[in-house]
Design brief:
Blueprint lengths: L5 E4 L4 H13 L4 E4 L23 E4 L2 E4 L1 H11 L10 H35 L6 H22 L12 H13 L3 H7 L3 H10 L3 H5 L4
Parallel strand pairs: 1-2
Antiparallel strand pairs: 1-3, 3-4
Helix pairs in contact: 1-2, 1-5, 3-4, 3-5
């Protein structure tokens, strides 16, 4: 049985990239096995044995299978050597968890699906942008950025004084958002986030996992 962790998913997926970012920051080599949930007919039938809801990623290491990105990333941080991505400070750790939840529930739906998919993904495949959906997502995106900026405050990282899972959660979502004009304009309203992105966006882990 392979010793390398195995990720099942697609490079374009924000959530697959989050797991890849965490592994890269921990210095852990891994295998990425392609699974396209948007393929005609959906994911392979046997993939549902790994993830009964048919989403990506799924994860396996030494016979231990796991799905749900938040669970996978916490497991990776605690199971492998390398820089700790969850603070021992209880408040910073709580803030990290809060930001991960914000990313799941608000950032991903509005910045990625509400704006990036409509502005970039749909035209790329020949579909028409739903401008009403974009218009509805814009104020929600601004709420997301303001909330993250406020929680970050004067810290160098989103959840405190060190790189954490929160940074690696938000970064790939923001990466897609910044591919649209609205994203580039909006982030300028939040100086701390703009500064944060200037060094997070060029990290080796981000560059090596870029989906484009």
């Amino acid at each position: 049985m392979t010793e390398k962790p195995r990720i099942f998913g697609a490079k374009y997926s924000v959530y697959v990239r989050i797991v890849r970012l965490v592994l890269a920051e921990k210095g852990v080599d891994y295998e990425l096995l392609p699974v396209d949930v948007f393929a005609k007919g959906g994911p392979p039938f046997d993939y549902l044995d790994r993830h009964p809801f048919g989403r990506i990623p799924a994860f396996e290491h030494k016979g231990f299978s796991l799905y749900e990105t938040s669970a996978v990333t916490r497991f990776v941080d605690e199971a492998f050597e390398g820089p700790k991505l969850q603070s021992s400070n209880i408040r910073e750790r709580a803030r990290c968890n809060q930001l991960m939840s914000i990313a799941d529930n608000y950032v991903y739906p509005h910045l990625v699906w509400g704006i990036y998919v409509e502005r970039v993904s749909k035209p790329r495949r020949g579909d028409i942008t739903d401008e009403a959906k974009v218009a509805a997502a814009i104020p929600k995106a601004r709420t997301c950025l303001k909330a993250i900026s406020d929680l970050m405050g004067v810290n160098p990282w989103l959840a405190g004084k060190q790189l954490s899972l929160a940074d690696l959660y938000v970064a790939p979502m923001l990466d897609y958002f910044l591919m649209v004009p609205e994203g580039g304009e909006m982030i300028q309203e939040y100086g701390n986030l703009e500064e944060w992105w200037s060094h997070v966006g060029v990290r080796r882990s981000m560059v090596s996992t870029s989906p484009v």
